[in-house]
Amino acid sequence: MLKKSIFLFFLLGSLFAQSAHSQENINLEGTKSLRSPQVHADNTVTFQVFAPQAKTAYIVGNWMEREASGKAGKQAMQKDGSYWKYTSPPLASDLFLYSVELDGVTVNDPLNVYQVRDVANIFNYFVTEGPQADLYQVQDVPHGSLSKRWYASPTLNMERRLTIYTPPGYEREKKSYPVLYLLHGMGGDEEAWPTLGRVAQILDNLIAKGTVKPMIVVMPNGHVANSAAPGESSKGQYAIQFFTPDVGTGKMEESFKDVIAFVESNYRAKKEKKARAIAGLSMGGAHTLFTSSYMPDTFDYVGLFSAAFRMNDKAKSPVFDDFENNLIKQRDHGLKLYWIGMGKDDFLYKTGEEYRKKLDGIDMKYVYRESEGGHTWANWRLYLTEFLPQLFK
Amino acid sequence: MLKKSIFLFFLLGSLFAQSAHSQENINLEGTKSLRSPQVHADNTVTFQVFAPQAKTAYIVGNWMEREASGKAGKQAMQKDGSYWKYTSPPLASDLFLYSVELDGVTVNDPLNVYQVRDVANIFNYFVTEGPQADLYQVQDVPHGSLSKRWYASPTLNMERRLTIYTPPGYEREKKSYPVLYLLHGMGGDEEAWPTLGRVAQILDNLIAKGTVKPMIVVMPNGHVANSAAPGESSKGQYAIQFFTPDVGTGKMEESFKDVIAFVESNYRAKKEKKARAIAGLSMGGAHTLFTSSYMPDTFDYVGLFSAAFRMNDKAKSPVFDDFENNLIKQRDHGLKLYWIGMGKDDFLYKTGEEYRKKLDGIDMKYVYRESEGGHTWANWRLYLTEFLPQLFK
């Protein structure tokens, strides 16, 4: 009944309304042998871009040294017929972001569909080989579930979106689980940790290794000026702003009890201090330190990843007004881990140093981990893999 | 303690490792007033691209007429200083895909972070105004949850990933819900209906209007050669192939009982024929018609959206071997709705016509809906909004 030619029609990719201009990327005619990027066994990476008319072509990669001006580093590609090519030196074991610059215009790599948004920009990404990168890849291990859900925040009088990871077996087992609240930075939202932070992959892999306890991970949106990530709220597909008016107001910390109440009434979450952890990066580090002191008997595990401190000196909030006393209360209630990670080149390095002096001043114990590098997802993924095995022991 | 200059540092976007080359896209210096695309009140749309050195610039949009050669249509942009501009005629009320072609290279729009993958290509998208497009936008209504989960398929001896939508209130209520199984086409996977198909938005909005019953929607991966969408399995970030060896083998249909068993033992799903619906587009339409006849007493509602028929004549499977008898059994068991949607310009139009003749030949009742247009997501979203209100009445 159905003619074979129809099957061929499928094969030729003529099926979709967009297929004709799609074929350029689908490795048909002329690009059959092309893949970009190609990660080699020694973690050198080769990029290839078809751009016959371009006068200049660069790879702009987040592993490159910045220029003296502060601009992102880039490396010239070499023209080879209609294509431009560049091979990197051996890279670390990690996930990397890059773009292509053609005649001064920054665009995606047309041969790489793997993309991720960081703040207001889309980057291509790839993952290299080696033990650390293996934690960021999906492996053949039991998988948890990743969900987008909306919760009511009575404090803010709004519905808000969050991402929640439940560990493998959560739905089958009847038991309750400890919870890690994991907060993003100023440029992020509830999509940041699950994408750039590779949370589901890291948790699945470390739980399978047996070094991390099965736990729930809750990733709320830390910008109370928004209810959800760009495109996921009734604001529609709006132009993303790096700065939103809620930064440093204390409202996220004041409303954090709503997040906990939602999780503990909707999930089989253990409802005790020793089963609660909170951690965050940059602005989320500030949210973490202020929330955990504002609720000084709530979390037994606290993680500050490249943490900011107070981000708006003029804001009035009980979160800030009583901070020094709250911190002393938090110390006195006792906690099992106050973990601080900071990169040597982080622009918040001095902020972190001052904060540790404050902790020293009141004799509050913490574990300090200083890494190479700066204010980067490479460090935040690394910190997460180091922080997780210390939780809920 | 924290200096104000640090706050400024945040503001200037110098925070992130990628920020220097990011600024070009963040509407700072020189692009401050630029937004692309801009949807106007009359649904004309203006695109702007910064490309001072380009010799030619086009918008390649899925609303444009194809060229005689079969290539996707494109419209020349006009140069205006360092920018290129194009304004479309008034468009329909829908979601649209497009790319930019600069000097013959197809790339993303650097000013639009809203992107979606269709088969092996990334496109920018935007949503216009009007009643149909409003169904595809997030509105201020109660929201369901969207989850990525893994299920065991004993038939295929593998773990597989699916997307599942649970309606607003699912977690709060104690009642059970009917289930729609919704299948993608040959170029898709478990990400297709939730992204291009706007399933969560459509369900949230129609449930809020009261025209659609709250239901669970299950979106499995229809390619049994893969366990998950590109990048979401242990295959890693592989090069996407349009054609996978499982197409038309009958294995998806044979293993469909595993999907149902997983859903009915892990969710509060009603376990009866009158509470089960199945629908699919293109290849997923073939999966739908063969699965529903292979399990002839399982589904009371069947939807074929631009359905393919048999996609590999040589494959041996009980799904195909007994098809004619199974179809008669399905007819005799009775069902409430057998709905067929097809576009006038669809390349599968004749296939659909032949299939309807087959149904007529055995006196099997169906509802036929012929729309304008072809084999497009515009039609599949439209069919979904028309099919849903007829379910579980």
UniProtKB/TrEMBL annotation, chains A, B:
Gene3D superfamilies: alpha/beta hydrolase, Immunoglobulins. InterPro entries: AB_hydrolase_fold, Esterase-like, Ig-like_fold, Ig_E-set, Mycobacterial_A85_antigen. GO terms for molecular function: hydrolase activity. Residues 1-19 form the signal peptide. Keywords: Hydrolase, Signal. CDD domains: E_set_Esterase_like_N. PANTHER family: DIACYLGLYCEROL ACYLTRANSFERASE_MYCOLYLTRANSFERASE AG85A (PTHR48098:SF1), ENTEROCHELIN ESTERASE-RELATED (PTHR48098). This is Alpha/beta hydrolase-fold protein. It comes from Sphingobacterium oryzagri.
